[in-house]
User: Which sequence fits this backbone?
């Protein structure tokens, strides 16, 4: 099978830095790997993905579990959540909580570690990526919203409401505040029902 090098050059050039770093190198042919590496070099990006401490400069990650293996679907998987530590903030617990939520919902998932060397940063950044099979990405995102991110949003809203005066709180129009989310639900539902009708 031949590699369309011209297409690959255009494709990799069109990706954002984040999307380019998300490419799974294990699925690339030799020609594609050379084009990919060239694009990384031109942008000043480097990456090394580790599972269980393959990076000699790192120790075993707390996300690793005995018997963990890369699932067959990983090459076509979708990233549903990223956890990047910031100064004074360890996101490992959040990543583990998100993984547990997906597993409890019966959604296959895999938590991997991505080491990124930013062009202007001397320290590599470790990003935890929670991945699921590509056909389950929307379901997984919904589970994470319900179990992880919505409770966080509730806390933020509570703090916001507490800061409002009595007058501003009573004047707040929740129908208007959440009109966009309601419209999103209606549009997705309509698109799903229309697709069902077409297939019947």
Assistant:
């Amino acid at each position: 099978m031949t590699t369309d090098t011209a297409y690959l050059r255009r494709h990799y050039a069109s990706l954002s830095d984040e999307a380019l770093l998300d490419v799974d190198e294990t699925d690339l042919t030799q020609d594609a790997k050379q084009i990919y590496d060239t694009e990384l070099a031109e942008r000043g990006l480097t990456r090394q993905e580790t599972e269980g401490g393959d990076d000699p400069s790192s120790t075993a990650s707390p996300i690793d579990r005995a018997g963990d293996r890369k699932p067959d679907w990983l090459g076509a998987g979708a990233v549903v959540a990223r956890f990047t530590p910031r100064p004074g903030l360890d996101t490992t617990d959040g990543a583990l909580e998100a993984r547990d939520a997906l597993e409890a919902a019966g959604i296959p998932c895999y938590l991997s570690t991505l080491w990124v060397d930013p062009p202007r940063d001397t320290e590599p950044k470790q990003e935890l990526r929670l991945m699921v099979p590509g056909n389950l990405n929307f379901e997984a995102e919904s589970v994470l919203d319900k179990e992880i991110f919505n409770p966080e949003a509730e806390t933020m809203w509570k703090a916001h409401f507490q800061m409002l005066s009595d007058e501003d709180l009573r004047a707040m129009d929740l129908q208007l505040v959440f009109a966009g989310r309601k419209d999103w639900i209606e549009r997705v539902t309509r698109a799903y029902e229309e697709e069902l009708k077409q297939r019947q």
